[in-house]
Amino acid sequence: MDQERSICGAMASNFIRPRWAALLLLFTVVAVASLQITTKAAFPRWPVFSGSAGLTSESPNDVVLASNDDDPRSCSRFFEGVPRRKVVKSIADFGGVGDGNTSNTETFRQAIRYLRRFGDRGGSQLNVPRGRWLTGSFNLTSNFTLFLEDGAVILGSQDPEEWPIIEPLPSYGRGRERLGGRHISLIHGDGLTNVVITGQNGTIDGQGKMWWELWWNRTLKYTRGHLLELMNSHNILISNLTFLNSPFWTIHPIYCSNVVIKNMTILAPLNAPNTDGIDPDSSTNVCIEDCYIESGDDLVAVKSGWDHYGISMARPSSNIIVRKVSGTTPTCSGVGIGSEMSGGVSNVTIEDMHIWDSAAGVRIKSDKGRGGYIANISISNIKMERVKIPIRFSRGSNDHPDKGWDPNAIPKVKGIYLSNVISLNSTKAPQLKGIEGALFEEICFKNFTILGLLKSTAWQCEFVSGYANEVFPMPCPELQKSGSLLCS
Ligand SMILES: *[C@@H]1O[C@H](CO)[C@@H](O)[C@H](O)[C@H]1NC(C)=O
Ligand SMILES: *[C@@H]1O[C@H](CO)[C@@H](O)[C@H](O)[C@H]1NC(C)=O
Ligand SMILES: *[C@@H]1O[C@H](CO)[C@@H](O)[C@H](O)[C@H]1NC(C)=O
Ligand SMILES: *[C@@H]1O[C@H](CO)[C@@H](O)[C@H](O)[C@H]1NC(C)=O
Ligand SMILES: *[C@@H]1O[C@H](CO)[C@@H](O)[C@H](O)[C@H]1NC(C)=O
Ligand SMILES: *[C@@H]1O[C@H](CO)[C@@H](O)[C@H](O)[C@H]1NC(C)=O
Ligand SMILES: *[C@@H]1O[C@H](CO)[C@@H](O)[C@H](O)[C@H]1NC(C)=O
Ligand SMILES: *[C@@H]1O[C@H](CO)[C@@H](O)[C@H](O)[C@H]1NC(C)=O
Ligand SMILES: *[C@@H]1O[C@H](CO)[C@@H](O)[C@H](O)[C@H]1NC(C)=O
Ligand SMILES: *[C@@H]1O[C@H](CO)[C@@H](O)[C@H](O)[C@H]1NC(C)=O
Ligand SMILES: *[C@@H]1O[C@H](CO)[C@@H](O)[C@H](O)[C@H]1NC(C)=O
Predict the structure, then answer these.
(1) What is the set of active-site residues?
(2) Which one of 166, 226, 285, 419 is most buried, by most CB atoms within 10 A?
(3) Ligand located closest to 255 CA
(4) At the topology level of CATH, where does 298-396+409-487 sit?
């Protein structure tokens, strides 16, 4: 029977070949979802820095930067700064009503239509004051700041028609979950530059429960929308807010460059399907820093398109930095790479993470048909507690957009460097499964410790080669080319 249960990444289901309208192909996913007890840790405290992004000022020459802190490793320099906005309005100026019941869809759309005209005249800012502002989807504009004041909550509409259907992404060829188009995100942007979404810990709540139910009860007609999606955009800052209950992946920058996502709290129920935290997709120079995420799917997943659609579009994700991110996801991973990685993923740095009560710490997901590559991935200073499998390379999900996938399109994986990793109370040793005919090369472990494992659990390695120094417990023979300097 048709099973739509899905863990860790959306799975295509019920895909219908348009030319053969009657042909129904069914994918079965066996989900083994063993929930663990979750302990919620306090919000991590990182070094405080001064500055006031998003706030307006009298001096027009002030530039808003993502950070002026003195952490030399901060990646927030990817955001190039924007001048203070000349025109500042409140959603209330446009007749918005923040009573949690009145729809503000037209009001947001009208406000942004009005503010758009200041794009080349000093930019604009829309403030959302304290209150509960119900709305359907709306689009942002360039040289624009959306600022959620203390106590401001934007609520996603419960009417699917307020999340209209848009074209599928070219690197996916179809909606990720259903054929054809997909629901637009609650907050959307295409072809924008210099956008800031920030505030005083205001909240954007997608109220995704209705969408998760449509998924669970198999009545979803089109792929669910994201909470925030930006396409083809450059120089973006998303900071200091709380995002809740996304219908689907929470923040999805695709075909973007210079995106900083900093000091965000992203929450969804731990069983909410495919509520990934942040998914940089076919994007470059992305910084994800100081974020706390708990959700029903990967906290962060780096992607670059799906099978032949991603291969022909060939838009890689590169220069992605994920640092000081913490959180939990009981059935998925702290950071995932893939499974959609057909445009290539390279030069990813993952550091200073704390992950607990999760299925995997870092997981690299690929398969036959994906093509593409994963190269130069550095993972260091990671602390895991009660993470079942600390490091996992997996394959074989058999999840393809349509019959057009090429079984000879084998991904290349080279250069995965793990160092200074400690995992406490894991239940399994690393599982590193490459793909037959495509050895995963230069897989290097250095100062990597897993404590609390049963003596009987061993590393599982297939089609991988690499090096291990200061690794406990004893790694698989495939990684025992020790003494090599290549690993440093
Ligand atoms: C976040 O808010 C703090 C406190 O208002 C402010 O100092 C900082 O500049 C903001 N950071 C970003 C990246 O918006
Ligand atoms: C909520 O809004 C609907 C229409 O949008 C209206 O019919 C209803 O009376 C409102 N309820 C409250 C409690 O304001
Ligand atoms: C945004 O502002 C910059 C100046 O800061 C200007 O050069 C650019 O044309 C503006 N973009 C749009 C789309 O108005
Ligand atoms: C928002 O932009 C998308 C394309 O990116 C477009 O299809 C949609 O109609 C726009 N929505 C509004 C309300 O303008
Ligand atoms: C992080 O954001 C919160 C509001 O969400 C703010 O109070 C705090 O100052 C910010 N921290 C930093 C280091 O900017
Ligand atoms: C921001 O608000 C959310 C939800 O209201 C809360 O869980 C979180 O602790 C707050 N964060 C900060 C830094 O105040
Ligand atoms: C499926 O869930 C949706 C959203 O909650 C609900 O409106 C619908 O009645 C449900 N359908 C079935 C067949 O259970
Ligand atoms: C890879 O990323 C690092 C920063 O993490 C950067 O210094 C380097 O230039 C990048 N390499 C390429 C080829 O872009
Ligand atoms: C590989 O990544 C490291 C660390 O992120 C970076 O310093 C180096 O420049 C990268 N190498 C290439 C060829 O991009
Ligand atoms: C090894 O890794 C642990 C855990 O991250 C760290 O505390 C320790 O300092 C590292 N040791 C060396 C020699 O780098
Ligand atoms: C977790 O690990 C700690 C330290 O290694 C150990 O003392 C404790 O017994 C472990 N707990 C479980 C449930 O395995």
Answers:
(1) 297
(2) 226
(3) 4
(4) Pectate Lyase C-like (2.160.20)
